[in-house]
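Researcher: Predict the fold of tetrahydrofolate synthase.
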Amino acid sequence: MMTYSEMERELNEIPKFGAKASLSNLSAYLELANHPERNLRVIHIAGTNGKGSVSAYIDSILRQAGYTTALFTSPHLIKINERFRINFKECSDGELINAWCSVKDYMVKGEEKGLQSLTFFEILFFMGMLIFSQKAVDYCILETGLGGRLDATVLSNPVLSVITSISYDHTEILGDTIEQIAAEKAGIIKEGIPVVAIDEENGAFSVIERTAKEKNAPVYGLKSQELTILKKCENTIDFSINSRYYKISNLKVKSYASYQVQNAALAVLAVKVLLPEVSQDVIREGIVKMYWPGRMEEIAENVYVDGAHNPGAVHQIYNSLTDSDKEWLLLFAVCSDKDYSEMIRVLGRLPWKRIYITKIDSARGADTAAVKQCFKEETAGCPIYEYDNARTAFETALKDREYENLLCLGSLYLAGEIKDFATTIF
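Model: Structure tokens for tetrahydrofolate synthase follow.
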């Protein structure tokens, strides 16, 4: 029997990206497995920021309503198992190993028929469909990996499509305008299937509306003006929704981050479009009970990690901290392919007490000297320190810290690293 470590090593040897095969190639593999994805009622989620949180909020509400859920998300922070959940419980090592062995068998058969090799994400999607289709699942929540139009998850048959906030990210693949990126995300919209989306004033929603109209899909937009923050405490936010489609008050998210209000509200609207009979009490309970790691997550007292990794996500962090009455330390690391100069320009407007620059344990980690220079240009007189690895930076920040809050920010990879070794510190 294969061990988890062996499975993890084999999966990690598969190129994350590579020669892009067509969706018909993956579909042919799914055909060999009798299309397990067709056995699931899918809620399909795309967008730039907030996909994981919106997925988790929908999952929590549905479980509170008594439904059995499957949840497929990416990336993972520590273990691959995080990507595959049934009723929010991570699938076991054994379930993943069995699914991987099955996929390998199908890959041998497929390559004998002349099919191309599957990519890393396609394999994980295939594994998820094999696992979930064998369970008594009421709803399967699928988060896209990248984009939407050509994403592996688009081969599913959704009962609802959800599009979260859209901003600049992966521009080399998705396009360098909001409209182009929105068109890629809107590629998840299917004929006649309802769409729930954030209605932002950046040009994205008109693209979504146009695509929905072409597909005869009813579309429901959520505007930020329809949300009211009633009270913000240390780690909770009370808010209400007053949209043309649905009204509810006295909702509470357990988070420091204001951006979770929008994510929770989008999830609420999505559930009400799909299941109008779900009660307000169930919605309130589902929202307040949601837990999602790596998003303004407090891993120890006054120590937070957040996977914000593009300018749009960093703007949301800025909005969450700009009215904070606490002083903050920042630990920052970012991938080299991100627009980190723009991220730092936004972060530089916050009054950090000290900044710690480090590198992600990844070949894609940005050069720390270049990152430090950007911070120097955007912050006036703030002490900035540079470290070769995240653990040293984290331990130093903890030692320096007196009464301040510490935020570890810039990448989900960093969030995963910090969470991993924090278990040995706290």
